[in-house]
Amino acid sequence: MPLKRDPHHQRDHHESAATEIDQLSEMLSQDQSKHARRLLKSMHPAKIASLLERLPREQRVAALHQIDARTEPKVLAQLSPALRTQLTWDLDADSDSSRDTGSDPDAGSGEEPETQLNLVLDALDQGKLKRIAKLFRKLHPARIAGLLESLPATERARVWDMVESERSAKVLRHLHEEVRRRLAAEMDLEHLVEAARGLEPDDLVDLIQDLPTATGRQILDAMDQRERERLQSMLSYPEDTAGGLMNMDQVAVRGNIGVGTLLRYLRLREELPPNTDKLFVIDRRHQYQGILRTERLLTARPEQSIAELMETDFEPVPADQSSDAVAQRFEEEDLSSAPVIDADGRLLGRITIDDVVDVIREQGARALTGMTGLDEETDMFAPVLASSRRRAVWLGINLITAFLAAWVIGLFEGTLEQVVALAVLMPIVASMGGIAGSQTLTLVIRGLATGQLGRSNTRILLLKEMGIGLLNGLLWALVVAALAILWFGNWTIGAIIAVAILLNLLCAALSGVAIPLLMSRLGIDPALAGSVVLTTVTDIVGFFAFLGLATLILL
Amino acid sequence: MPLKRDPHHQRDHHESAATEIDQLSEMLSQDQSKHARRLLKSMHPAKIASLLERLPREQRVAALHQIDARTEPKVLAQLSPALRTQLTWDLDADSDSSRDTGSDPDAGSGEEPETQLNLVLDALDQGKLKRIAKLFRKLHPARIAGLLESLPATERARVWDMVESERSAKVLRHLHEEVRRRLAAEMDLEHLVEAARGLEPDDLVDLIQDLPTATGRQILDAMDQRERERLQSMLSYPEDTAGGLMNMDQVAVRGNIGVGTLLRYLRLREELPPNTDKLFVIDRRHQYQGILRTERLLTARPEQSIAELMETDFEPVPADQSSDAVAQRFEEEDLSSAPVIDADGRLLGRITIDDVVDVIREQGARALTGMTGLDEETDMFAPVLASSRRRAVWLGINLITAFLAAWVIGLFEGTLEQVVALAVLMPIVASMGGIAGSQTLTLVIRGLATGQLGRSNTRILLLKEMGIGLLNGLLWALVVAALAILWFGNWTIGAIIAVAILLNLLCAALSGVAIPLLMSRLGIDPALAGSVVLTTVTDIVGFFAFLGLATLILL
């Protein structure tokens, strides 16, 4: 095998190499595949082809491994047919043989399962990048996207180069926003435009919204005029509205034609866009009239008219409806697609279930990550510095609340000096309140999100939560008091902690209901900051009740 | 209006009423609508009809308000046509007039928006239950389900009676599991079976799985044999597998027929099940062969054969695949439906996107609520006692961890006695570690859930998280140290808290990665218990590092 594993790169050497071919040859023989890749990337395909011809046979394969999938066909086209055949044959043999032995040289532990991720990492490790290209050709674009997301930034860029041009659009479409933005930022404009052409308009709109304005502009400029106008009208709607979700691939028909005519027209089209469970009926002025289900069409007689078969009571989606509301409607009514109209009732496009599923998935992720201030962190391998900065903000907010709690404790320094057992027990009071409060908070946040909690039933919910707080407060107050008495042999401390826990759990129930309601009234997302505010309250109330009672009674 | 609002029920009176008609009349005139409802519920429809005939005109309407929607048609059928017309006319007038004035008598604050929930609550308040029935007739079953979920248990049962028989199945289908189970438990068997007949097999299977075994048995017995066998085969798959998700309404065709024949057959069927974006092709022995997209069918020429048009590379879903895996595939490949096969490759049924959306929604909810031990609490208005019990378990687990932390503090009682400032500052160290750790934990849990985190990239993630821990640790250690020095004027305490915070943030990064990985290796769901274990670790390490260092240095 041409490449020996040698972890210590000898950087200083290749300065002395006179010509590019010598440089390349030296890099390859010294396992400096990274440098080789960079060098090859800077060359024209024809130039690479001429270099390849002059390299010894085994180095040719090594060099080819370092050429990205989008340049490879252009290089191969410049080679003589004989050399081309030999080279692809060598490459195949090389990839296969190393794949068979792929598990023993580096993987270390023999137990490790042969996952696709391991295959990719092994191939990266050994510089056999074409093996990745080969694997990718067999995988679904969504799976490739998943693998890319599982890789740290440098490895991701190298692997990304192994995705063929015609598939890179589909892979981009399946990537998380943040990862997509980062990869797209690294692509050169030519490839980006090529990939953009392969995207569905709605995904392309998402991508353009994620890119720097100038890059988005350039992509738009590269489209033909009709496509550009379409995209611009879609870009005019915010991302989180129906207009931002919609696609423009709907099949719209006029009501006055017959089933036979329509079927002939569809047959001419040959293909329908995915998720076409209904066609949309419009009039002469493009006004939305109703829907025609394809299943209805399949079971209709050719002489029936569209107007006869269409359903006019299907409520279209206004373009400015929030995507959360759209998701709720799709879910409640089990829709696969729905028409989108503008304020004048004109048909603009359609929303399909696949985009709604993404919205629902994101809602779930937002609820989970929002609670820890990770709202935007969708890339597991974002650069350390970027991640640190994002998380630091949340830690800073938390620090303020922690100092508030410390300040409350500080008020009772004198008491703590005299009865140090209080310092030992006080975190218990705060912690129980925090947990009970988050339980209520979670329920209320969910109720608000699903719209089940309105002004009219909050009083009932509050009463219920206070009831639960009372029951659990009594139960755990007794348990904690008993344990505290056993530990410190002091009945008064037991009584004090019992009262403090009961008070804190009641206050936790109250805050768990009141805080999210108040926040949502003020236009703040309770899922994002609710738990910090809540634990601040339960900490402060817990410490204050416990230490305050102790000061009153013990001193 | 017949019913005057009188909040003080005069319960003792109606004992004296001799006959049912007197009882009823008295109850109605004294606004004891609850008693009237109960009395009417116990009577045969014919009996109620005869009572109605004898009541004065205005009491008739009041009585009719209290009859549930499922009994009403039977009662009306027993009345003379003239009386029937008059009664429905009166009822309409009554409902409308009270609806118009609905906002002023009780609502109190004029600002309150006229939501459907408010309408329902007002109607309940005034005993005008038929107004609810009228509202419900205009609403989508999913919306009715949402309203039901927004109501406390007693009100929910009264409102549920206003849902017409033929729609109750559809409403049941849209209810959350827990609420559905509770309502179904209250229905009498006859109505339950009637409702069950209106459910799709997959929803019915869910319902039966939620009901007590005996009740489920009775529902099965009421079905005809073919339906029963079908249901039993579906019941044999666990709820969280493809088999538990699937429905049996697929359209399966043989490959050897032509498009023309198929279209004629479909036209005879007249209707296709919802979400039919593909038909499934099977052979003589019911073996799955491939799929035929309906859009392909629409654009095909009648003389083509199914075998020619079908796609054989569509991977069917094995019945024992987990529902999470099914959801991931639907999401990645943007599917609307997929065939389910058994181990022998026979076509069993199909999974549709609407059920997958439910799975995805539940995953999101589980991630959010699991963290606070609310895994199963889907009913916002579950009885206080049931909710208390469920949440008490989580509080108990938390108490153990809180006592562990207290025990660590207790080890340093001597130190705390001498330097009480430590007691003031120690919650800050623990709290910063807890927040930083949850950030990492959340990311890892999501990575595990999406399958992006495998053994091969954990080391890289760990390094990245440790890097973030180091950066944020240094930053916040300095900030906290500065604040502590300002507060207590003691440089040593500042240095100690700085080191403790740095240590705790590094340990938080390590635990945030290690704990969920270890738990998932042990088969425990990290989303459920991960955060408790994590905060236990960060509390203990935080207190131990801070107080331990202080003991070494200050004493």
TrEMBL record, chains A, B:
This protein's record includes keyword Cell membrane: yes
Molecular function via GO: magnesium ion transmembrane transporter activity; metal ion binding
Region feature (Disordered): 1-37, 89-115
Keyword field: CBS domain, Cell membrane, Magnesium, Membrane, Metal-binding, Transmembrane, Transmembrane helix, Transport
GO CC terms: plasma membrane
CDD domains per record: CBS_pair_Mg_transporter
Membrane-spanning intervals of the chain: 392-412, 418-445, 466-489, 495-519, 531-554
Pfam families associated with the record: CBS (PF00571), MgtE (PF01769), MgtE_N (PF03448)
Topology of the protein relative to the lipid bilayer: Multi-pass membrane protein
Biased composition (Basic residues): 1-11
Record-linked SMART domains: MgtE_N
Subcellular location field: Cell membrane; Membrane
Occurrences of domain CBS (ranges): 310-368
InterPro entries: CBS_dom, CBS_dom_sf, Mg_transptr_MgtE_intracell_dom, MgtE_N_sf, MgtE_transporter, SLC41_membr_dom, SLC41_membr_dom_sf
Major site of localization recorded for this protein: membrane
Similarity remark: Belongs to the SLC41A transporter family.
Function: Acts as a magnesium transporter.
Family matches, as NCBIfam families: mgtE (TIGR00400)
Assembly information from the UniProt record: Homodimer.
Protein name per the record: Magnesium transporter MgtE
